[in-house]
Fold these 2 entries.
Entry 1:
Amino acid sequence: MPKAATRPVVLTGDRTTGSLHLGHYVGSLKSRLVLQEDHRQFLLLADAQALTDNGDDPARIRRNVIEVALDYLAVGIDPEKSVICVQSCLPALAELTMLYMNFVTVSRLERNPTVKQEIVQRGFQRDIPAGFLCYPVSQAADITAFKAGLVPVGEDQLPMIEQSNEIARRINRHVGRELLPEAGALVSCVGRLPGIDGRSKMSKSAGNAIPLSATPAEISAAVQAMFTDPGHLRVSDPGRVEGNVVFTYLDAFDGSPDLADLKAHYRRGGLGDTVLKKRLDACLQALLAPIRERRAAFAKQPDFVMDVVRAGTARAAVLTQQTLDEVRAALGLFSFGGG
Amino acid sequence: MPKAATRPVVLTGDRTTGSLHLGHYVGSLKSRLVLQEDHRQFLLLADAQALTDNGDDPARIRRNVIEVALDYLAVGIDPEKSVICVQSCLPALAELTMLYMNFVTVSRLERNPTVKQEIVQRGFQRDIPAGFLCYPVSQAADITAFKAGLVPVGEDQLPMIEQSNEIARRINRHVGRELLPEAGALVSCVGRLPGIDGRSKMSKSAGNAIPLSATPAEISAAVQAMFTDPGHLRVSDPGRVEGNVVFTYLDAFDGSPDLADLKAHYRRGGLGDTVLKKRLDACLQALLAPIRERRAAFAKQPDFVMDVVRAGTARAAVLTQQTLDEVRAALGLFSFGGG
């Protein structure tokens, strides 16, 4: 593929902490299906990064490498178009991280807003694992190793791209040329999908997520349990649309032109939650049925899935090793070739 | 060599910040000559660690990889008995470091007395490179990757061994068996050799060192410039032995039984610095002449030296990769082999 070299490189991926859910679908998977058509897209199964805050449960992280790969294939990621690879099987990433760690100060890492926020979320306080503090450096290694021009992120992850570009600039300044490209952030315009309980974020651990592999009954149960408007007691009562998870999901997954009318009707009163939920249920069943079926089909071919991930990791290994070699040579590290 | 496997493993080495001097000879090289006779000794040319506080000058670090290897060969390190290898050419060390960083907290690293002291010495204050803060983790990776049972250290480096053993214990506890041996510290009983100016430490950067490659004229000039007793103005004056660098060096390098008499004579008065310095000069010339000659001879065979280092690094690569594979498997990381 001679044209491949000129297509912009996108790096994205997921921590392998659990299988993916509807939040991932809306937030990232959907756009990856578009991106893979005219970009060189690398999907990193970020098991090493997942270990920085799950050091006590590596078995879960390992198991989910293949689960997430299955999710990718299930939603339509095409291994001919996107490269699926395992982070911890790419030694060049660890080596680049170690080199970059000499170009970032501890206080700079401590000031990273994303890290700061996540330290609070995870309740680490003073017991932050060193790997967690340094994970922005590891991300910079990922981004630059693939020479990614574009990294899809949520708004809260922007400081990570900034940190990566800062390191790239420091290295470039140090070696006197544009060795490492800076990455642009592709900020998702889709807001985060709330959990079915209306809490801020859909997450498996909070038990408020609809996994991509959910059965029809699980989907229906989740929709039934969904948070609407606690003040909307009778059908005839006026209802609130804002903060009503069913409407948020309809916005995200239905998107029909008559949604505006539906919202107006709900606000006026006279539209019951049951009607709404039926509509959402049908919509989610239609979305997830083919994904679930493809997932089940791929799950029956573990050798094929393993081969996809193996081949992707081998391609990524060549590319990342090449970048490492370039960085080592440019910084003037020892080599047996050049002495 | 079936016996090799039962010989205790020693890991030692040097940051490749400059070629070695008499301080290294007394402090470590001499004992390595003994250790290599009945240990499996690995000498790590620690260029990656040197970069943690010399990130701005990688060219110097690179150059000195071969300079230090030359010093090793010059003093009599036998590549048939000791393995000389380059740290930055062993990817397993970077990968182990990354894994271990999840088992050490930032505050634990900040409490490390050696790191604390070195932060002050290097004037880093708040601008500590992340790589520098984490270098005890990198040392733990070195020590455990070679499964070293014995690590020769100065007393000020004891916290490093402690940190390494702490990580080994955490990993062992985590995996439920003695995967990584704890290392014993072989504390040098020789005090640090002062610089010729009487300052605490001989170092190339302080300009108070006698390099192993010093010419006869350089040795003599260094001995001439050596700090003695500033109060010892006339030969007949009583002189101080304590803090008198010439005596410190005679203790370290001469060691004849009549040194005690010489000291007594100096203390009484009547013994001139010139006599002392002549004696030390002769002693150092005799010590350094064969080292300098062997060094010059090896320097004329750069291919041989490169081959020694290449072969040593290849051996070390096999060993360290094996440990990495064991750690990954024991922690349950993803692998294409076992799934």
Entry 2:
Amino acid sequence: MTDVAEGERRILVAVDEGEESMYALSWCLKNIVAQNSKDTLILLYAKPPRAVFTALDGTGYLFSSETWAAMEKYAADVADCVMEKAKKTCRDLRQDIKVETKVENGDPRDVISQMAEQLRADVLIVGSHGYGSIKRAFLGSVSNHCAQNVNCPVLIVKKPKTNAGSKCQ
Amino acid sequence: MTDVAEGERRILVAVDEGEESMYALSWCLKNIVAQNSKDTLILLYAKPPRAVFTALDGTGYLFSSETWAAMEKYAADVADCVMEKAKKTCRDLRQDIKVETKVENGDPRDVISQMAEQLRADVLIVGSHGYGSIKRAFLGSVSNHCAQNVNCPVLIVKKPKTNAGSKCQ
């Protein structure tokens, strides 16, 4: 485990389309990333799997291939939007930090836990209620899952209720 | 919410007799506390309530007042031991930081959550599996409870399995 003195920590931040993950990212940039450090910030977005869309339909209606394609396109656009917003947040707050991005397909709980190990993250930062209330009902709590299954320290950031912001979608 | 640039953050660290909370404290001192900052570290120890001791007995045997007194004395000694060890860890790693200590009676889940609000902590640091496996069976997971109920960011630190250490008791 590296530390502030040694620098070169790998800080993994799970981002999604909600305000809370952007707040978590800002908080991390202000409170975790050391001044003049060699920290690398890795922004990770998990594109929820098809099963979530199927569950959201709920009618048992079988989507056509065109509908699937449109939904895949939508998911890719959301991923782009989230990453652009996250990178802008990084640029606005810390121009000196090295930023990498990763978009992976799958259940966010599994994707984030696996990537934390695979990328040898020194710390994982997640919003308290990522992936929205509807998706969470199907996916379960991402932050809870990560806190229990990831070996590195996990920082769970809750957005204060008084702090207004704008959604990505 | 203050940040590194402004300094003067109030960092609340829940400590207990296990190795994991001391590891969490060390990690915090190395990774969260900024160099030359005005951060205040507040070490919090929650003395588990009598109900835990009663549950641990399990036989329905009614303890005598002498037994209760001995157990209270034991709990106070453990609290002292934990705090001394925690303060030494702070001194060893960061001599420049302001350290405060608090010992409160009650269910650690409630004590830590309440103190985080009451002390207006900017961040709460807890070990992943505080308060030992036996007590946890009765008390539930402290870190889970805090992550769900505390409004400030919560950092859950898991001690790597390869990193050996010594228990306080």
